[in-house]
Design brief:
mainly alpha; 5 helices; 0% strand
C-alpha cells in the first residue's frame, strides 16, 4: 500500500503529524490507529471464514485472491499442463506463409503452394464478369471528364 513512499515523504508525514496532534497526543493517536487497523483485519478474516463455512467443504481451499481475473488465470495455467492442443495449433499455424499468400493473391501472382484451380479467376488476373479493380488505370486527359458514378453521389 505504501510502497511508493520515500524517506523524505515519510519524514514530512511525521513532522505534519507532530504539528497537528502535538507531541503529547501523538502516541495515543498511533495506538488508536493501530487498534483500528487490527479490528478491520480481524473483521475481514471473520467474514472470509464465514463465507468459506457457508460455501461448504468443497470450497475449503478457496482463496479470495482467486477472484482477481489475472490471479485466477495465472493459477489455472500453472496447474493445467494439458495445453498440448494449443501448442500444436500454434506450431501448425504459419502466419508468415498466410500473409505471403494473401499478398500474392492481391498482387495477382500465384500464391506459393496453390494451384490455378484453387485461386479465383479475378484474383488470378483474368476478369470474371468485370474489370480487375486492383490494377491501376490510366489517368484521363485533362479535358476529359472522369466517369460519373451515380451510386457514389
Amino acid at each position: 500500500m505504501f510502497n511508493d513512499i520515500g524517506g523524505l515523504e515519510l519524514v514530512a508525514l511525521v513532522v505534519l503529524a507532530v504539528l497537528i496532534f502535538g507531541p503529547d497526543k501523538l502516541p495515543k493517536v498511533i495506538q488508536d490507529a493501530a487498534a483500528f487497523i487490527r479490528k478491520i483485519r480481524a473483521f475481514s478474516e471473520n467474514a472470509k471464514e464465514d463465507i468459506r463455512s457457508e460455501l461448504g467443504p468443497e470450497f475449503k481451499d478457496f482463496e479470495f485472491e482467486d477472484l482477481n481475473p489475472k490471479a485466477y488465470l495465472r493459477k489455472q495455467l500453472a496447474e493445467n499442463d494439458d495445453l498440448k492442443e494449443l501448442k500444436e495449433l500454434r506450431s501448425s499455424f504459419d502466419l508468415r506463409k498466410e500473409i505471403d499468400d494473401v499478398t500474392d493473391a492481391v498482387n495477382g501472382r500465384e500464391p506459393s503452394g496453390v494451384s490455378d484451380a484453387a485461386v479465383p479467376a479475378a484474383v488470378n488476373g483474368t476478369p470474371s464478369g468485370g474489370p480487375d479493380l486492383l490494377k491501376k488505370t490510366e489517368k484521363p486527359a485533362r479535358d476529359e471528364r472522369p466517369p460519373f458514378d451515380s451510386d457514389a453521389t
